[in-house]
Protein backbone atom coordinates (compact mmCIF):
# COMPACT_ATOMS: atom_id res chain seq x y z
CA UNK A 1 0.00 0.00 0.00
CA UNK A 2 1.45 3.38 -1.01
CA UNK A 3 1.76 5.90 1.81
CA UNK A 4 -0.32 9.09 1.30
CA UNK A 5 2.72 11.20 2.19
CA UNK A 6 6.42 10.63 1.60
CA UNK A 7 7.70 10.32 5.21
CA UNK A 8 11.26 11.28 4.29
CA UNK A 9 10.27 14.45 2.50
CA UNK A 10 7.85 15.24 5.32
CA UNK A 11 10.73 14.99 7.79
CA UNK A 12 12.46 17.81 5.88
CA UNK A 13 9.58 20.16 6.64
CA UNK A 14 10.31 21.92 9.98
CA UNK A 15 6.65 22.11 11.00
CA UNK A 16 5.87 18.49 10.16
CA UNK A 17 9.05 17.30 11.89
CA UNK A 18 8.12 19.24 15.02
CA UNK A 19 4.67 17.63 15.01
CA UNK A 20 6.14 14.17 14.54
CA UNK A 21 8.60 14.76 17.37
CA UNK A 22 5.73 15.85 19.65
CA UNK A 23 3.80 12.73 18.64
CA UNK A 24 6.70 10.46 19.65
CA UNK A 25 7.00 12.09 23.07
CA UNK A 26 3.26 11.75 23.60
CA UNK A 27 3.21 8.10 22.55
CA UNK A 28 6.32 6.68 24.24
CA UNK A 29 7.45 6.95 27.83
CA UNK A 30 10.02 5.39 30.11
CA UNK A 31 10.57 1.66 30.37
CA UNK A 32 12.36 -0.05 33.23
CA UNK A 33 15.55 -0.20 31.17
CA UNK A 34 15.49 3.02 29.12
CA UNK A 35 14.53 6.62 29.77
CA UNK A 36 12.03 8.26 27.42
CA UNK A 37 14.61 9.87 25.05
CA UNK A 38 16.41 6.53 24.72
CA UNK A 39 13.12 4.73 23.97
CA UNK A 40 12.26 7.29 21.29
CA UNK A 41 15.74 7.03 19.81
CA UNK A 42 15.33 3.26 19.42
CA UNK A 43 11.93 3.70 17.76
CA UNK A 44 13.38 6.34 15.45
CA UNK A 45 16.21 4.02 14.41
CA UNK A 46 13.75 1.22 13.69
CA UNK A 47 11.71 3.59 11.54
CA UNK A 48 14.81 4.80 9.69
CA UNK A 49 15.81 1.19 8.98
CA UNK A 50 12.41 0.46 7.44
CA UNK A 51 12.63 3.57 5.26
CA UNK A 52 15.98 2.61 3.75
CA UNK A 53 14.58 2.34 0.17
CA UNK A 54 13.25 5.90 0.46
CA UNK A 55 16.65 7.20 1.57
CA UNK A 56 18.23 5.54 -1.45
CA UNK A 57 15.55 6.85 -3.83
CA UNK A 58 15.96 10.40 -2.49
CA UNK A 59 19.75 10.42 -2.05
CA UNK A 60 19.97 13.42 -4.38
CA UNK A 61 18.28 15.54 -1.70
CA UNK A 62 21.41 15.20 0.41
CA UNK A 63 24.02 15.17 -2.35
CA UNK A 64 26.70 17.70 -1.33
CA UNK A 65 28.19 17.89 -4.83
CA UNK A 66 31.82 17.71 -5.84
CA UNK A 67 32.43 21.25 -4.59
CA UNK A 68 32.05 20.05 -0.98
CA UNK A 69 34.08 16.85 -1.24
CA UNK A 70 37.25 16.60 0.82
CA UNK A 71 40.28 14.37 1.21
CA UNK A 72 42.16 13.39 4.37
CA UNK A 73 45.18 11.15 3.95
CA UNK A 74 44.17 8.78 1.13
CA UNK A 75 40.50 8.89 2.08
CA UNK A 76 37.94 10.70 -0.07
CA UNK A 77 35.10 12.13 2.00
CA UNK A 78 32.15 12.91 -0.23
CA UNK A 79 30.63 15.67 1.88
CA UNK A 80 31.33 17.93 4.86
CA UNK A 81 28.56 16.68 7.21
CA UNK A 82 29.20 13.49 9.16
CA UNK A 83 27.10 11.49 11.59
CA UNK A 84 28.63 11.77 15.06
CA UNK A 85 29.39 8.86 17.35
CA UNK A 86 26.53 7.84 19.63
CA UNK A 87 23.65 8.11 17.17
CA UNK A 88 24.23 4.64 15.71
CA UNK A 89 26.13 2.94 18.53
CA UNK A 90 25.81 -0.59 17.18
CA UNK A 91 25.89 -0.03 13.39
CA UNK A 92 22.21 -0.81 12.92
CA UNK A 93 21.32 1.94 10.41
CA UNK A 94 24.50 2.29 8.35
CA UNK A 95 22.79 1.61 5.01
CA UNK A 96 20.12 4.35 5.13
CA UNK A 97 22.52 6.86 6.67
CA UNK A 98 25.09 6.23 3.92
CA UNK A 99 22.76 8.05 1.52
CA UNK A 100 22.47 11.08 3.82
CA UNK A 101 25.87 11.85 5.32
CA UNK A 102 29.26 12.56 3.79
CA UNK A 103 30.82 10.17 6.32
CA UNK A 104 29.55 7.96 9.14
CA UNK A 105 30.96 7.63 12.63
CA UNK A 106 29.50 4.51 14.23
CA UNK A 107 29.88 3.41 17.84
CA UNK A 108 31.30 4.03 20.33
CA UNK A 109 31.84 0.26 20.44
CA UNK A 110 33.43 -1.74 23.28
CA UNK A 111 35.18 -5.11 23.17
CA UNK A 112 32.38 -6.94 24.99
CA UNK A 113 28.72 -5.98 25.55
CA UNK A 114 28.28 -3.20 28.11
CA UNK A 115 24.99 -2.13 29.68
CA UNK A 116 26.35 1.34 30.39
CA UNK A 117 25.61 3.21 33.59
CA UNK A 118 22.68 1.85 35.63
CA UNK A 119 19.21 3.39 35.65
CA UNK A 120 15.65 2.36 36.52
CA UNK A 121 13.28 4.92 34.97
CA UNK A 122 9.98 3.20 35.82
CA UNK A 123 11.22 1.85 39.14
CA UNK A 124 13.00 4.38 41.31
CA UNK A 125 12.91 7.03 38.55
CA UNK A 126 16.66 7.15 38.01
CA UNK A 127 17.81 8.05 34.47
CA UNK A 128 21.04 8.61 32.55
CA UNK A 129 19.85 10.60 29.50
CA UNK A 130 17.64 13.69 29.30
CA UNK A 131 16.53 16.28 26.76
CA UNK A 132 16.47 19.97 27.66
CA UNK A 133 14.08 21.38 25.06
CA UNK A 134 14.28 24.95 26.32
CA UNK A 135 18.05 25.10 25.69
CA UNK A 136 18.15 22.57 22.80
CA UNK A 137 20.60 20.43 24.74
CA UNK A 138 21.12 16.75 25.52
CA UNK A 139 22.46 15.59 28.89
CA UNK A 140 24.11 12.21 28.72
CA UNK A 141 25.64 9.90 31.33
CA UNK A 142 25.09 6.64 29.45
CA UNK A 143 28.61 5.33 30.03
CA UNK A 144 29.33 3.65 26.67
CA UNK A 145 26.43 1.17 26.37
CA UNK A 146 27.39 -1.19 23.53
CA UNK A 147 26.43 -4.58 22.15
CA UNK A 148 30.12 -5.36 21.68
CA UNK A 149 32.42 -5.66 18.69
CA UNK A 150 31.17 -9.09 17.54
CA UNK A 151 27.60 -7.81 17.17
CA UNK A 152 28.79 -4.60 15.50
CA UNK A 153 31.10 -6.41 13.10
CA UNK A 154 28.28 -8.53 11.69
CA UNK A 155 26.36 -5.35 10.88
CA UNK A 156 29.41 -3.76 9.29
CA UNK A 157 30.02 -6.84 7.16
CA UNK A 158 26.42 -6.78 5.97
CA UNK A 159 26.73 -3.10 5.12
CA UNK A 160 29.95 -3.71 3.16
CA UNK A 161 28.47 -6.63 1.25
CA UNK A 162 25.53 -4.54 0.09
CA UNK A 163 27.84 -1.79 -1.21
CA UNK A 164 25.20 0.81 -0.47
CA UNK A 165 25.94 4.52 -0.40
CA UNK A 166 29.43 5.95 -0.65
CA UNK A 167 30.15 7.31 2.82
CA UNK A 168 33.42 6.30 4.53
CA UNK A 169 32.94 4.44 7.81
CA UNK A 170 34.66 5.72 10.94
CA UNK A 171 34.53 3.26 13.84
CA UNK A 172 34.58 4.96 17.23
CA UNK A 173 35.89 2.58 19.89
CA UNK A 174 36.69 2.45 23.58
CA UNK A 175 38.83 0.09 25.61
CA UNK A 176 36.63 0.72 28.64
CA UNK A 177 35.84 -2.47 30.56
CA UNK A 178 35.29 -3.70 34.09
CA UNK A 179 39.00 -3.52 34.94
CA UNK A 180 40.09 0.11 35.22
CA UNK A 181 43.77 -0.16 34.39
CA UNK A 182 45.76 1.16 31.45
CA UNK A 183 46.83 -2.33 30.41
CA UNK A 184 43.24 -3.61 30.38
CA UNK A 185 42.11 -0.60 28.36
CA UNK A 186 44.92 -1.08 25.83
CA UNK A 187 44.30 -4.83 25.54
CA UNK A 188 40.60 -4.33 24.84
CA UNK A 189 41.41 -1.64 22.29
CA UNK A 190 43.89 -3.93 20.56
CA UNK A 191 41.32 -6.71 20.26
CA UNK A 192 38.74 -4.35 18.75
CA UNK A 193 41.25 -3.12 16.18
CA UNK A 194 42.44 -6.60 15.24
CA UNK A 195 38.88 -7.89 14.84
CA UNK A 196 37.57 -5.00 12.73
CA UNK A 197 40.52 -3.47 10.86
CA UNK A 198 39.65 -5.07 7.52
CA UNK A 199 36.17 -3.52 7.47
CA UNK A 200 36.51 0.12 8.54
CA UNK A 201 37.98 3.17 6.85
CA UNK A 202 39.01 5.13 9.95
CA UNK A 203 39.50 4.27 13.62
CA UNK A 204 38.30 6.91 16.09
CA UNK A 205 39.97 6.75 19.49
CA UNK A 206 37.30 7.95 21.92
CA UNK A 207 38.45 8.47 25.50
CA UNK A 208 36.34 11.56 26.03
CA UNK A 209 32.95 10.39 27.34
CA UNK A 210 32.10 12.37 30.50
CA UNK A 211 29.84 9.50 31.59
CA UNK A 212 32.88 7.29 32.22
CA UNK A 213 34.93 8.59 35.13
CA UNK A 214 38.09 6.58 34.33
CA UNK A 215 38.48 8.49 31.05
CA UNK A 216 39.80 11.48 32.99
CA UNK A 217 42.93 9.51 33.82
CA UNK A 218 43.47 8.55 30.17
CA UNK A 219 43.14 11.97 28.54
CA UNK A 220 46.85 12.72 28.84
CA UNK A 221 49.76 13.12 26.40
CA UNK A 222 51.44 10.02 27.85
CA UNK A 223 48.45 7.75 27.29
CA UNK A 224 47.78 9.28 23.89
CA UNK A 225 51.27 8.15 22.91
CA UNK A 226 50.50 4.61 24.07
CA UNK A 227 47.22 4.53 22.12
CA UNK A 228 48.84 5.82 18.95
CA UNK A 229 51.68 3.31 19.15
CA UNK A 230 49.11 0.52 19.58
CA UNK A 231 46.91 1.64 16.67
CA UNK A 232 49.83 2.19 14.29
CA UNK A 233 51.23 -1.24 15.18
CA UNK A 234 48.00 -3.18 14.70
CA UNK A 235 46.32 -1.16 11.94
CA UNK A 236 49.17 0.25 9.83
CA UNK A 237 47.92 2.34 6.96
CA UNK A 238 44.44 2.91 8.42
CA UNK A 239 43.70 6.60 9.09
CA UNK A 240 43.23 7.50 12.75
CA UNK A 241 40.99 10.10 14.37
CA UNK A 242 40.94 11.16 18.02
CA UNK A 243 37.92 12.60 19.78
CA UNK A 244 38.73 15.32 22.30
CA UNK A 245 36.50 16.46 25.14
CA UNK A 246 35.29 20.03 25.55
CA UNK A 247 36.85 22.67 27.73
CA UNK A 248 35.17 22.74 31.12
CA UNK A 249 34.83 26.53 31.14
CA UNK A 250 35.54 29.61 29.06
CA UNK A 251 38.15 30.85 29.18
CA UNK A 252 39.81 27.49 29.89
CA UNK A 253 42.36 27.10 32.64
CA UNK A 254 45.98 27.15 31.55
CA UNK A 255 46.54 23.59 32.75
CA UNK A 256 43.52 22.21 30.88
CA UNK A 257 44.48 23.97 27.65
CA UNK A 258 48.08 22.79 27.92
CA UNK A 259 47.07 19.16 28.55
CA UNK A 260 44.71 19.08 25.56
CA UNK A 261 47.09 20.76 23.16
CA UNK A 262 50.01 18.59 24.23
CA UNK A 263 47.93 15.43 23.74
CA UNK A 264 46.90 16.61 20.27
CA UNK A 265 50.48 17.45 19.31
CA UNK A 266 51.60 13.96 20.37
CA UNK A 267 48.77 12.47 18.33
CA UNK A 268 49.77 14.50 15.28
CA UNK A 269 53.50 13.79 15.62
CA UNK A 270 52.83 10.04 15.74
CA UNK A 271 50.82 10.07 12.52
CA UNK A 272 47.30 10.95 13.65
CA UNK A 273 45.21 12.06 10.68
CA UNK A 274 42.40 14.17 12.17
CA UNK A 275 40.82 15.25 15.47
CA UNK A 276 37.15 15.55 16.38
CA UNK A 277 36.52 18.65 18.52
CA UNK A 278 34.73 18.21 20.79
CA UNK A 279 32.73 15.77 22.83
CA UNK A 280 30.09 16.91 25.29
CA UNK A 281 31.04 19.24 28.15
CA UNK A 282 31.12 17.92 31.72
CA UNK A 283 28.33 19.56 33.76
CA UNK A 284 26.63 19.04 37.10
CA UNK A 285 23.37 17.11 36.82
CA UNK A 286 22.10 18.91 39.91
CA UNK A 287 21.99 22.30 38.19
CA UNK A 288 19.25 21.37 35.72
CA UNK A 289 15.75 20.17 36.59
CA UNK A 290 15.63 17.74 33.63
CA UNK A 291 18.65 15.84 35.00
CA UNK A 292 17.79 15.89 38.70
CA UNK A 293 17.05 12.13 38.66
CA UNK A 294 20.48 11.14 37.34
CA UNK A 295 22.37 8.79 39.65
CA UNK A 296 25.64 10.42 38.59
CA UNK A 297 26.43 13.92 39.82
CA UNK A 298 28.11 14.74 36.50
CA UNK A 299 27.20 14.14 32.88
CA UNK A 300 28.02 15.39 29.40
CA UNK A 301 26.00 18.24 27.89
CA UNK A 302 25.79 18.66 24.12
CA UNK A 303 23.68 20.74 21.77
CA UNK A 304 23.36 24.50 21.27
CA UNK A 305 25.13 25.50 24.55
CA UNK A 306 28.29 23.72 23.36
CA UNK A 307 28.96 25.80 20.23
CA UNK A 308 31.08 28.51 21.86
CA UNK A 309 33.23 25.83 23.53
CA UNK A 310 33.64 24.03 20.22
CA UNK A 311 34.71 27.19 18.37
CA UNK A 312 37.24 28.12 21.06
CA UNK A 313 38.84 24.66 21.04
CA UNK A 314 38.96 24.62 17.23
CA UNK A 315 40.68 27.99 17.20
CA UNK A 316 43.26 26.93 19.79
CA UNK A 317 44.07 23.62 18.08
CA UNK A 318 44.27 25.19 14.62
CA UNK A 319 46.64 27.88 15.86
CA UNK A 320 48.83 25.25 17.54
CA UNK A 321 48.77 22.58 14.79
CA UNK A 322 47.56 24.34 11.62
CA UNK A 323 48.13 21.35 9.31
CA UNK A 324 45.96 18.95 11.33
CA UNK A 325 42.44 18.47 9.87
CA UNK A 326 39.71 19.25 12.40
CA UNK A 327 36.16 17.89 12.49
CA UNK A 328 33.84 20.21 14.42
CA UNK A 329 31.40 18.35 16.66
CA UNK A 330 29.30 20.06 19.28
CA UNK A 331 26.59 22.68 18.90
CA UNK A 332 26.48 22.64 15.09
CA UNK A 333 22.78 23.32 14.48
CA UNK A 334 22.78 25.26 11.21
CA UNK A 335 24.71 26.13 8.11
CA UNK A 336 25.86 29.35 9.76
CA UNK A 337 27.22 27.36 12.73
CA UNK A 338 29.12 25.11 10.35
CA UNK A 339 30.56 28.12 8.52
CA UNK A 340 31.76 29.63 11.83
CA UNK A 341 33.51 26.32 12.56
CA UNK A 342 35.25 26.41 9.17
CA UNK A 343 36.33 30.01 9.73
CA UNK A 344 37.80 29.00 13.11
CA UNK A 345 39.88 26.20 11.55
CA UNK A 346 37.68 23.14 10.97
CA UNK A 347 37.47 21.25 7.68
CA UNK A 348 34.37 19.10 8.31
CA UNK A 349 31.53 18.88 10.84
CA UNK A 350 29.65 16.12 12.67
CA UNK A 351 26.14 16.30 14.09
CA UNK A 352 23.94 14.37 16.52
CA UNK A 353 21.95 16.74 18.75
CA UNK A 354 20.87 18.80 15.74
CA UNK A 355 19.16 15.74 14.24
CA UNK A 356 17.22 15.26 17.48
CA UNK A 357 15.81 18.79 17.34
CA UNK A 358 15.76 19.57 13.61
CA UNK A 359 15.76 16.25 11.77
CA UNK A 360 17.62 15.58 8.54
CA UNK A 361 16.74 19.00 7.15
CA UNK A 362 19.81 20.34 8.98
CA UNK A 363 22.10 18.46 6.57
CA UNK A 364 20.55 20.18 3.57
CA UNK A 365 20.84 23.50 5.40
CA UNK A 366 24.55 23.00 6.09
CA UNK A 367 25.40 21.81 2.58
CA UNK A 368 23.45 24.65 1.00
CA UNK A 369 24.94 27.34 3.24
CA UNK A 370 28.50 26.15 2.69
CA UNK A 371 28.04 26.07 -1.08
CA UNK A 372 26.79 29.67 -0.96
CA UNK A 373 29.48 30.94 1.44
CA UNK A 374 32.28 29.32 -0.57
CA UNK A 375 31.27 31.17 -3.71
CA UNK A 376 33.46 30.07 -6.59
CA UNK A 377 35.85 28.16 -4.30
CA UNK A 378 35.70 24.49 -3.45
CA UNK A 379 35.89 23.31 0.16
CA UNK A 380 39.42 22.05 -0.48
CA UNK A 381 40.50 25.41 -1.93
CA UNK A 382 39.00 27.30 1.00
CA UNK A 383 40.68 25.11 3.62
CA UNK A 384 44.06 25.27 1.86
CA UNK A 385 43.97 29.07 1.74
CA UNK A 386 41.82 29.82 4.80
CA UNK A 387 44.47 31.54 6.87
CA UNK A 388 45.08 34.04 4.07
CA UNK A 389 41.41 35.08 4.22
CA UNK A 390 41.53 36.04 7.88
What are its keywords?
TIM Barrel, 390 residues, four-stranded antiparallel sheet, 15 helices, alpha/beta
Walk me through this protein's architecture.
The chain is of the alpha/beta class and 390 residues long. It has a single domain, classed as TIM Barrel, CATH 3.20.20.70. It contains 15 helices and 14 strands. Strand 1 and strand 2 (75-77) form a beta hairpin. Helix 7 (182-196) packs parallel to helix 9 and helix 11 packs parallel to helix 12. The longest helix is centred in the C-terminal third of the chain and has 16 residues, at 254-269.
Q: Would you count the extended β strands for me?
A: 14
What is the gyration radius calculated from CA atoms?
20 Å
Low-confidence stretches: none
- Helix segment count? 15
Structural class: alpha/beta
Mean pLDDT level: 93
CATH class: Alpha Beta
Distance between the termini: 56 Å
Strand/helix succession: HHHHEEEHEEEHEHEHHEHEEEHEHEHHH
CATH topology: TIM Barrel
- Domain count: the total is 1
Overall shape: it is globular
What percentage of residues falls in helices of 4 or more residues? 40-55%
Strand content: 15-25%
Biggest sheet character = 8 strands, parallel, barrel
Q: What is the CATH H-level superfamily?
A: Aldolase class I
Arrangement of strands in the largest sheet: 3-4-7-8-9-10-13-14
What would CATH call the architecture?
Alpha-Beta Barrel
Offer a concise description of the structure.
By secondary structure, the chain is an alpha/beta fold. It has helices at residues 7-11, 14-27, 36-50, 52-57, 94-97, 149-162, 182-196, 215-218, 221-234, 254-269, 307-320, 335-344, 353-358, 361-374, 379-389; strands spanning 70-72, 75-77, 81-83, 103-109, 129-132, 137-140, 169-173, 202-206, 240-244, 274-277, 281-284, 298-303, 326-329, 348-351. It has a single domain (7-389), classed as Aldolase class I (TIM Barrel).
Amino acid sequence: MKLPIDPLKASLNPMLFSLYRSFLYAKYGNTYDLSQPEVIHEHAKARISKLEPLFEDHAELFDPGEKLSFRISNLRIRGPVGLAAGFDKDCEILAPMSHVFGFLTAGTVSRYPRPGNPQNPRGDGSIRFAVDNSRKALINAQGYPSKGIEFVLERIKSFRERKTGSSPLFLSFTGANNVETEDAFLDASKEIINISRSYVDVFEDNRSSPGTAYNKELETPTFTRKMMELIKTHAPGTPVSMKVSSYLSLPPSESEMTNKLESIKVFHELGGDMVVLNNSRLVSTRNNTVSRNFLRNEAGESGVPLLSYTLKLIEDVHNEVPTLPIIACGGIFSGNDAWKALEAGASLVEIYSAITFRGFQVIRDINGTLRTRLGDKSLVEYVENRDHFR
